Structures are given as structure tokens and as C-alpha cells.
From TrEMBL:
GO terms for biological process: regulation of gene expression. This is Ammonia monooxygenase. The chain crosses the membrane at residues 15-32, 39-58, 96-115, 160-180, 192-212, 219-236, 242-259, 271-296, 331-352. It comes from the Bacteria. One of its GO terms (molecular function) is monooxygenase activity. NCBIfam families: Gneg_AbrB_dup. InterPro entries: AbrB_dup, AbrB_fam. GO terms for cellular component: membrane.
Length: 366
């Protein structure tokens, strides 16, 4: 008879702990907005919640089921910018987008070869740690290929967080700290019916893409749905700023909650090596993108964002905040996703088989 109340009490405590955790993250967003930080409602919660977890003050795991809310909101907002004029520009930039994706793959392979041994990871782990995909997808591919997923998850989380933190501040440092820059649609009125319709459209498309087994359905589904509506002239009104900010808080808190004090303390060499390799990869991709921009006569900032080894959600937000065309940046990342996602499994399988064959004779000699 006492199990139900005890269980209810535990659920209530977990809920209150999560609410406090996200609330403190939102306070971080407000603070970072006050100081003029880029992407304040994502970077602020990320920094605050990561500190709460690393210091042991309030270690909390944000459930994975909350992350789709942030992805769906951002994706459906970006999709609304996909006008017929933008589609024409994206088609014209096809060779540049494809070339940038292949340049990024070359940089990933080179960084993997240089840093995997230093970190103590295998080549398969090193590749999965650096390739731009989600930590969950990278871990699943590691398990399928009999590769330890823990270093992969840790490295992927560091990669996402480092790119979100370093790239906006780096661009600000090069351009000068701008005044009055922020997310668009700050003056969109709150109209509940429009918000519900846009959310319903986004989540329905997300579930459809999951059912079709399309990669990254949380982002690609809502993006495709609202982009189709926008191109056909039936685009819905965008989200008001408070909804977009809430989505960023969820994404920032989710990233921050993945940091664990015991893992970082136990993996000092891995942490240092991963950070160095991530920064090296970011620098290599940025330099390559700047070179392609010079050859193509395009804005280097646009290509740096398009080539960045970060998540499509985070880079789309960064582009919107920095005043770049988020739809074109998204096109760069989507092209890379559709090139990489079908090919990552067989590349990892080949690398893993090569390493197992190479290690087998050494073990037999002993």
C-alpha cells in the first residue's frame, strides 16, 4: 500500500529537480542576453547546466524525449524561410555545397588519423567521435560494430558543445561585438492558434519521417513540412520570440546535462585530446570553407557556418542570430547529412575490420 505514494513522491522529486535545473538554465540565458552574448538562450543554459553537473551541485539528466521540442521548433522556424527565391539560390549553389561537404569529410579523416591514437581510442572510435552526427546515433553505430560507445558519446557531446561555444564567439571576435543583434521575429504577437498549428505540423512531420526511417527526423521532418508550405505560398506565421527562446533553453540544458563529473575526472587525457582534436577540426573546416568561399566569390561567414562540424539545429540558430541566411546554411548541413548518414556505417565497419585484422597477428605472435 505504501509503494504507490513512495513512487509518486519520487516522480514529484524528479520533476521538481528537473524544473529547477531548467529554470537555472533559463536564468543563465537571461544573464547571457544581458551581457550581449551570441545565442544567449542556448549558450547560457549550456554553460550553467554543465557547471551544475560538473561541480556536482545539481547533476540532472534532461530526458531525451524533451529534446525534440527544441529541434521541432527550430526546424519549423527555419523551414518557413525557404521561399521559392531561396530554393533557386540553393540549386545554383549545388556544386559549392557538395564540394564543402566533401572537404569536411577529408578534414574529419585527417583529424581522426592524427588524434585517435593519442586519445587512446581506436580509429573506428575516433571517426565516430569526430563525424558530425548526434551522440545517440554515433553510439548506436559504435555498438553495432562492437566498439565501446562511452568515449564516442563523450567526444560527440564535447564536439557539439565546443562548436556552439567557439564558433559564434569566434565570428564575433573577427567582426567586432555588434550591438542590437538578436533573433528575428522578436515582435511577432503571441497567437495560440498559429503556435498550435505550427507545432502540430512540425510534430506530425517528425513522426512521419521516423516511420519512414529517414535520418535526423526530429529536424528534417518539420523542416521539410514547413519549407513545402512556404514554397507553395501557404507558410504559417513564425513563432514569437518566447517560444524560440524556450526551444533554445531546452537544447542548451540537454547538452549541459550530458556532462558528468566522474567521467571528466576519470578521462583527463581523453578530455584534453578531444578538445584539441575538435578545435583542430573546426579550424581546418573553417579554413577550407574560407578558401572555397574565395574561389566561389561568396561570403566566407556563410560557408564557415555551412562547413562547421556542429549539429544542423545549432548551426541554423547560429546563422539566424548572426544575420546569415539560415536556410542556405541548413542546405549545406542537410547535404552533408544525406551524404554522410548512409555511408558512415560501412566506413566504420571497414575501419573496425581493418583494425581487428591488424591486431590479430600481433596477439597471435604473443
Amino acid at each position: 500500500m505504501t509503494d504507490a505514494p513512495a513512487s509518486s513522491g519520487a516522480v514529484l522529486r524528479r520533476f521538481l529537480r528537473l524544473a529547477l535545473f531548467i529554470g537555472l538554465g533559463a536564468c543563465g540565458g537571461w544573464l547571457f542576453q544581458r551581457i550581449g552574448s551570441p545565442l544567449p538562450w542556448m549558450i547560457g543554459p549550456l554553460v550553467v547546466t554543465a557547471l551544475l553537473c560538473l561541480t556536482g551541485a545539481l547533476p540532472t539528466q534532461v530526458p531525451n524525449r524533451l529534446r525534440p521540442f527544441g529541434q521541432v521548433v527550430v526546424a519549423s522556424q527555419v523551414g518557413l524561410t525557404f521561399t521559392s527565391e531561396t530554393l533557386h539560390v540553393v540549386l545554383e549553389l549545388g556544386p559549392v555545397i557538395l564540394g564543402t561537404a566533401m572537404m569536411t569529410l577529408v578534414c574529419i579523416l585527417l583529424v581522426t588519423l592524427v588524434f585517435s591514437r593519442w586519445s587512446g581510442m581506436t580509429l573506428a572510435q575516433g571517426f565516430l567521435a569526430n563525424v558530425p552526427t548526434s551522440p545517440v546515433e554515433a553510439a548506436a553505430m559504435a555498438v553495432e560494430n562492437r566498439v565501446d560507445p562511452v568515449p564516442v558519446i563523450f567526444s560527440q557531446t564535447l564536439r557539439l558543445s565546443a562548436v556552439v561555444l567557439v564558433l559564434p564567439f569566434g565570428l564575433f571576435a573577427l567582426e567586432g561585438w555588434p550591438a542590437g543583434r538578436g533573433m528575428p521575429h522578436a515582435d511577432v504577437p503571441i497567437q495560440p492558434l498559429n503556435i498550435v498549428l505550427l507545432l502540430a505540423c512540425g510534430f506530425a512531420a517528425m513522426h512521419l519521417f521516423r516511420w519512414l526511417r529517414i535520418p535526423n527526423p526530429n529536424f528534417l521532418g518539420p523542416l521539410a513540412a514547413t519549407a513545402t508550405l512556404a514554397v507553395s505560398g501557404y507558410g504559417l506565421p513564425p513563432y514569437p520570440a518566447v517560444i524560440l527562446s524556450a526551444a533554445q533553453v531546452v537544447l542548451g540544458c540537454w547538452l549541459g546535462s550530458t556532462f558528468r563529473r566522474e567521467l571528466v575526472a576519470r578521462a583527463g587525457r581523453l578530455t584534453l585530446t578531444c578538445l584539441v582534436s575538435i578545435l583542430t577540426l573546426l579550424a581546418a573546416c573553417s579554413l577550407g570553407a574560407a578558401g572555397i568561399a574565395q574561389l566561389a566569390g561568396m561570403d566566407w561567414r556563410l560557408l564557415v557556418l555551412g562547413a562547421a562540424p556542429g549539429g544542423v539545429t545549432e548551426m541554423a540558430l547560429t546563422a539566424k542570430f548572426l544575420g546569415q541566411n539560415a536556410t542556405i546554411v541548413t542546405a549545406f548541413h542537410l547535404t552533408r547529412i544525406f551524404i554522410f548518414m548512409p555511408n558512415i556505417p560501412w566506413i566504420v565497419a571497414v575501419i573496425a575490420r581493418y583494425e581487428r585484422r591488424r591486431l590479430r597477428p600481433e596477439s597471435e605472435d604473443k
